[in-house]
Amino acid sequence: MARKAKKRRYSRSASSDVESEMRRYKKGTARSGRGGRGGRVKSRKQAIAIGLSKARRAGVALKTPEKGTVSEETRKSVARDTVKARKGPHPVSRTRSRATTEALEHEGHAAASHAALAKQAHAVARRRGPKARSAAAKKAARTRARRRAHG
After folding, report:
1. What is the pLDDT of residues 86-96, one digit of tens each?
2. Are residues 78 and 114 in the same domain?
3. Per-residue pLDDT tens digits for 3-34
4. Residue 24: burial class (beta carbons within 10 Å; 0-12, 13-18, 19+)
5. DSSP states along 11-33
Protein backbone atom coordinates (compact mmCIF):
# COMPACT_ATOMS: atom_id res chain seq x y z
CA MET A 1 0.00 0.00 0.00
CA ALA A 2 1.48 3.34 -1.05
CA ARG A 3 2.01 6.00 1.59
CA LYS A 4 -0.12 9.08 1.08
CA ALA A 5 2.01 12.13 0.25
CA LYS A 6 1.93 14.72 3.03
CA LYS A 7 0.68 18.14 1.91
CA ARG A 8 3.44 20.72 1.85
CA ARG A 9 2.76 23.61 4.23
CA TYR A 10 5.33 25.96 2.67
CA SER A 11 7.02 26.21 -0.71
CA ARG A 12 9.90 23.88 -1.57
CA SER A 13 12.60 26.52 -1.03
CA ALA A 14 11.09 27.69 2.28
CA SER A 15 10.80 24.09 3.43
CA SER A 16 14.49 23.49 2.69
CA ASP A 17 15.43 26.57 4.77
CA VAL A 18 13.28 25.30 7.66
CA GLU A 19 14.77 21.82 7.22
CA SER A 20 18.36 23.07 7.47
CA GLU A 21 17.47 25.11 10.58
CA MET A 22 15.88 22.00 12.13
CA ARG A 23 19.07 20.06 11.41
CA ARG A 24 21.06 22.76 13.23
CA TYR A 25 18.57 22.63 16.11
CA LYS A 26 18.89 18.84 16.42
CA LYS A 27 22.69 19.11 16.36
CA GLY A 28 22.45 21.76 19.04
CA THR A 29 24.18 24.46 16.98
CA ALA A 30 21.10 26.56 16.11
CA ARG A 31 21.34 30.01 17.68
CA SER A 32 18.91 32.93 17.76
CA GLY A 33 19.33 36.67 17.51
CA ARG A 34 21.77 38.82 15.57
CA GLY A 35 25.04 36.99 15.08
CA GLY A 36 23.76 34.15 17.28
CA ARG A 37 24.11 36.23 20.42
CA GLY A 38 20.58 35.40 21.59
CA GLY A 39 21.63 31.98 22.86
CA ARG A 40 20.75 28.44 21.87
CA VAL A 41 17.41 27.65 20.22
CA LYS A 42 15.44 25.62 22.74
CA SER A 43 12.24 24.65 20.91
CA ARG A 44 11.26 23.17 17.55
CA LYS A 45 8.78 26.02 17.01
CA GLN A 46 11.57 28.57 17.42
CA ALA A 47 13.75 26.68 14.92
CA ILE A 48 10.89 26.65 12.37
CA ALA A 49 10.29 30.38 12.89
CA ILE A 50 14.00 31.14 12.33
CA GLY A 51 13.99 28.99 9.15
CA LEU A 52 10.94 30.82 7.78
CA SER A 53 12.46 34.20 8.67
CA LYS A 54 15.67 33.31 6.80
CA ALA A 55 13.58 32.18 3.80
CA ARG A 56 11.65 35.47 3.79
CA ARG A 57 14.88 37.49 3.97
CA ALA A 58 16.24 35.47 1.05
CA GLY A 59 13.22 36.56 -1.00
CA VAL A 60 10.99 33.47 -0.83
CA ALA A 61 7.34 34.51 -1.25
CA LEU A 62 5.60 33.43 1.97
CA LYS A 63 2.19 34.60 3.14
CA THR A 64 1.93 36.86 6.18
CA PRO A 65 0.20 34.95 9.02
CA GLU A 66 -3.50 35.74 9.50
CA LYS A 67 -4.42 38.40 12.06
CA GLY A 68 -5.16 36.75 15.39
CA THR A 69 -3.18 33.56 14.67
CA VAL A 70 0.11 35.10 15.83
CA SER A 71 1.12 38.08 17.96
CA GLU A 72 1.29 41.57 16.46
CA GLU A 73 5.04 41.53 17.14
CA THR A 74 5.47 38.46 14.92
CA ARG A 75 3.43 40.07 12.13
CA LYS A 76 5.68 43.15 12.33
CA SER A 77 8.84 41.03 12.12
CA VAL A 78 7.40 39.21 9.07
CA ALA A 79 6.78 42.58 7.41
CA ARG A 80 10.38 43.63 8.27
CA ASP A 81 11.79 40.45 6.71
CA THR A 82 9.76 40.95 3.53
CA VAL A 83 10.97 44.55 3.19
CA LYS A 84 14.56 43.42 3.76
CA ALA A 85 14.22 40.89 0.92
CA ARG A 86 12.86 43.56 -1.47
CA LYS A 87 15.74 45.94 -0.70
CA GLY A 88 18.34 43.37 -1.73
CA PRO A 89 21.91 43.19 -0.45
CA HIS A 90 23.43 46.36 0.96
CA PRO A 91 26.35 47.89 -0.94
CA VAL A 92 29.90 46.99 0.04
CA SER A 93 31.58 49.74 2.04
CA ARG A 94 34.30 51.91 0.46
CA THR A 95 36.68 50.84 3.24
CA ARG A 96 36.27 47.16 2.37
CA SER A 97 36.61 47.84 -1.36
CA ARG A 98 39.81 49.81 -0.82
CA ALA A 99 41.22 47.10 1.47
CA THR A 100 40.55 44.47 -1.21
CA THR A 101 42.20 46.59 -3.90
CA GLU A 102 45.26 47.21 -1.73
CA ALA A 103 45.54 43.50 -0.88
CA LEU A 104 45.43 42.64 -4.59
CA GLU A 105 48.16 45.18 -5.33
CA HIS A 106 50.46 43.19 -3.02
CA GLU A 107 49.73 39.99 -4.99
CA GLY A 108 52.04 38.74 -7.70
CA HIS A 109 51.14 38.62 -11.40
CA ALA A 110 50.38 34.90 -11.15
CA ALA A 111 47.34 35.70 -8.99
CA ALA A 112 45.64 37.20 -12.04
CA SER A 113 46.76 34.46 -14.46
CA HIS A 114 44.18 32.71 -16.62
CA ALA A 115 44.47 29.53 -14.50
CA ALA A 116 44.06 31.41 -11.19
CA LEU A 117 41.01 33.34 -12.44
CA ALA A 118 39.45 30.15 -13.83
CA LYS A 119 40.02 28.38 -10.49
CA GLN A 120 38.40 31.28 -8.61
CA ALA A 121 35.42 31.38 -10.99
CA HIS A 122 34.94 27.64 -10.62
CA ALA A 123 35.03 27.84 -6.81
CA VAL A 124 32.43 30.65 -6.78
CA ALA A 125 30.21 28.80 -9.28
CA ARG A 126 30.11 25.75 -7.01
CA ARG A 127 28.63 27.88 -4.21
CA ARG A 128 25.79 29.10 -6.44
CA GLY A 129 22.65 27.26 -7.44
CA PRO A 130 22.10 25.67 -10.86
CA LYS A 131 19.79 28.51 -11.96
CA ALA A 132 22.39 31.17 -11.17
CA ARG A 133 25.13 29.16 -12.92
CA SER A 134 22.95 28.77 -16.00
CA ALA A 135 22.18 32.52 -16.05
CA ALA A 136 25.90 33.34 -15.71
CA ALA A 137 26.78 30.97 -18.59
CA LYS A 138 24.12 32.55 -20.83
CA LYS A 139 25.38 36.04 -19.99
CA ALA A 140 28.97 34.97 -20.77
CA ALA A 141 27.84 33.58 -24.13
CA ARG A 142 26.08 36.87 -24.95
CA THR A 143 29.19 38.85 -23.98
CA ARG A 144 31.41 36.64 -26.17
CA ALA A 145 29.02 37.05 -29.10
CA ARG A 146 28.99 40.83 -28.65
CA ARG A 147 32.79 41.00 -28.46
CA ARG A 148 33.15 38.91 -31.63
CA ALA A 149 30.71 41.18 -33.48
CA HIS A 150 32.49 44.39 -32.42
CA GLY A 151 36.05 43.07 -32.22
Report:
1. 888 888 899 99
2. no
3. 666 777 778 888 888 899 999 999 999 998 88
4. middle
5. -HHHHHHHHHHHHHHHHT--B-S
The answer on 79 and 118 residing in a single domain is: no
CA distance 26 to 44: 9
Is there a single domain that holds both residue 120 and residue 71? Answer: no
Closest of 104, 128, 127 to residue 116, by C-alpha: 104
Q: Is the pLDDT of residue 65 over 90?
A: no
Residues spanned by the domain of 132: 110-150
Same domain, 41 and 81: yes
Q: Enter the pTM of the model.
A: 0.54
Structural contact between residues 47 and 20, judged by C-beta atoms closer than 8 angstroms: no
Cβ atoms 33, 4 nearer than 8 A:
no
In order, the DSSP letters of 32-80 are -SGGGTT-B--SHHHHHHHHHHHHHHTT---PPPPBTTB-HHHHHHHHH
What's the domain count of the chain? 2
